[in-house]
UniProtKB/TrEMBL annotation:
Family: Belongs to the peptidase M1 family.
GO cellular component: cytoplasm; extracellular space; membrane
Domain Aminopeptidase N-like N-terminal stretches: 18-203
Descriptive protein name: Aminopeptidase
Top-level lineage group: Eukaryota
ERAP1-like C-terminal domain mapped to chain residues: 536-850
Compartments in which it is found: Cytoplasm
Co-factor binding comment: Binds 1 zinc ion per subunit.
Reactions catalysed according to its record: Release of an N-terminal amino acid, preferentially alanine, from a wide range of peptides, amides and arylamides
Residue intervals of the Peptidase M1 membrane alanine aminopeptidase domain: 238-455
Gene3D superfamilies in the cross-refs: 1.25.50.20, 2.60.40.1910, Neutral Protease Domain 2 (1.10.390.10), tricorn interacting facor f3 domain (2.60.40.1730)
Taxonomy of the source species: Eukaryota, Metazoa, Spiralia, Gnathifera, Rotifera
CDD domains given in the database record: M1_APN-Q_like (cd09601)
Amino acid sequence: MGDQETKKLFERLSQTVVPTHYDLTIQPYVDTFKFNGEVTIHIQVREPTDTVILYAADLQVDNAKIVSKSKDELNGKIELDEENERLKISFDKKLEKNDYQLSMKFAGDITNRMVGFYRNQYTTPDGTVRYGASTQFEPADCRRAFPCWDEPNFKATFDITLITPKDLRAISNMPIKSENEFAENKEWKVTKFDRTPIMSTYLVAFVIGEYDYVETKDSNGVSMRVYTPLGKKEHGNFALETASKVLPFYAEYFKIKYPIAKADQIAIPDFAMGAMENWGVITYRETALLIDPKLSAMSARQRVAIVVAHELAHQWFGNLVTMDWWTDLWLNEGFASWIEYLAVDKCYPEFDIWTQFVADAFSEFLTPDALKSSHPIEIPIGHPAEIDEIFDAISYHKGSSVIRMLHDYIGDDAFRKGLHTYLTEYSYKNTITLNLWSHLAKASGKPVADVMSTWTLQMGYPLVTVHEEQQANKTRTIKLTQQRFIADGSSDDDNLQWKIPITIFTKSNPKSIAKQILMDKPEMTVTLENISEDDWIKLNYNSIGLYRVKYEPKTLARLNEPIANKTLSPQDRLMVQNDVAALCNAGHQSFVDCLKLLLSYKDEDNFTVWKSIASTIGDLSSLIEYTEYFNQYKKYRLNLFSSIQKKLGWNATANEDPLVAMLRPIILTIRGKSGDQEVIDEANKRFQQHVNGNLIDPNIRGAVYNIASRYGNENTQEQLRKLYKEAVMNEEKNRLLNAMGQSSNPAIIESTLQFVFEGDNVRMQDIYVGVIGCVSSRIGRDIVWKFLQNKWTTIVERYGEKSSFLTTFVECCLSGFVDDKTASEIQSFFDSANTPIVTRAVKQVVETIQMRSKVLKRDSKAIEEYLSQY
Ligand code: BES
Ligand code: ZN
């Protein structure tokens, strides 16, 4: 969507009429999936006008009436501009500058689209299927629930009333003020909620349905509940415990109290994303909130802790202080994606979460941001439909990495101080990125905006090349150069430059920084002291700076030693191989170098380093899978992962390190996929025992399912499907769903796709999980691509043409190909598919495939030769 020509002409609402307060009543019918509503909006007319324009979409609106302070009434004429989702109300007399109340009645459908006010399907413990309803308004779907000024800088207060059947719970942002029988129908009740703080429309929420809950108060007396499906309230305990620690942590970190009397979290049965930070009532996908103390994997706990910490951060950063327009969404999301780590580190130090940041956030943005089709963090957004473009790895992962670099640059004290004054100044207001920079600059005395703008206003990041110039008398002179790193190795026509905080450290003092400079030129020479001839040197201490490093062969070779003896921190160890792999992809060096380097990690013991290596190995596998020497490569993998597998085995030990519990399945999966017969036999054995009721440890269950599926037959599939249907927890369902398509039998993959897409086996929110399983192999990828082409129209109809799920399908299914022919097939298919939402994803996929194709052409011979020893 990024291209100028596809951008819709768009104008924001005028500030001549602004809302200050909404009195909103909604009456939903979860049997007919309809709702009725009434709203009275207190408005200020700031310039005389005879029209009022606000938003409404997919609503029938009637009876618009305006009442002045002196109780004069005027009826308005309503026009709905469907294309622009706007409601124009015209009066036959000018409204003078004053305060008024604008009232409307409206009605709409409770859809199944997972946006606006939509329905949820759930099954009660006795097996009956029932429906509830909930909201998802960010970025611009509040207008599907009631007419409103649906832009983030029209903040107002809200008095919400819900009229619902008596047996359903009614939950909203604020505590319940009153609950009474509905005068018109005894079976219904009227729930009124306290007035909200001054806030944006995208944060309004209400939920109707049957829920259980667990509750507590945090150390500041805020009431906290976690709402769960009926009969599963203990699955809310972990999130509740996390939230009750994290909320006071933030109140203290920001030195601003949480402004609402309650902070609820609720697991919604049908939910498009991971979670949504509605003020006072955060909504979650079930897997992002619920933990079964017996059945959940450690990785699921960690995920819940992260998501909870992220959404709670938004209660200040986003809800109290809100971006002026979607252009600054990155600030919300980048900041929350950084501080979630700070909070989890405080509450669960055992996850060593900051190390994981490097693998899960830092290195995850480096890949897409190296594409020519990337975009800057700060990107002008016109129409809110363009938001999908920035709800991506760049906003989240580059955004959080930029904040981490900045935090390191100015230090925690100045960072907190600046944050506090910023949040205080803009409380209940709106803001832009520059305002944060100026508060942080003031607190630190450093040129924050100046340094940050090179990172947020231009796309990409630099590759710093290190050239050793001279070594004499224990000093070494090195020359550094910077240029944009581009994934396929092409040079940067725009010649972008950055202000790079560079750190250098060396063998003589491996735990402290020897040199720290701000590189603000294309080239710099640095002299290092106290350094002997063979001493290693390394740039980017703990991988905090946003750059990759390219060393000369001898400089790189010296790093084998501190990698093998683990003198380098895990963050540094993992990035050395990650950088080298990226440089190989780009053709700066041969992939043989990468394969050789990886062998220095054979005795690695750190979870995060292994996770990152596994990802390098996985990327490479999906290339080599297309060659004749894939079997040799499997043997190489067996060799690389042999000692760690021996060490970990199959069974958890008592009080095991949680990171070991998370590492074991990664190693087992790779060993299994590489053809380790012992692992395959054991997995099959355990799978059969599991089917017969001897349950597998949840931490390795996903790995066992994957291996059993890969080497299994129709019967295995039947068993997986049966387990899927019987599973109660979504986490368990996802493990099974992901395993199904990993079969090596094309017929089974085809039938998995049927299972996943057809009938009501799988919720719309989970379909992509099944599809991702199918693209884990070369044959699977072909089958899925054919399937997508055949079914695209149906898929688009089902999800809606604006659904971000469409982007997910493109991104997850198609980037594994390696030939230019498929790349152009993909391009031309989507050129004529008329689904603009996927335009950028398609570009990125095509560019990725072209890069992969180049790699194979360039390095295949050499890799084959190297691997022939296996
Ligand atoms: N505010 C977002 C959700 C969102 C963003 C909705 C943009 C619509 C447009 C929420 O805070 C979020 O970031 N959710 C993440 C999970 C989080 C832990 C990274 C998600 O849903 O993936
Ligand atoms: Zn967020």
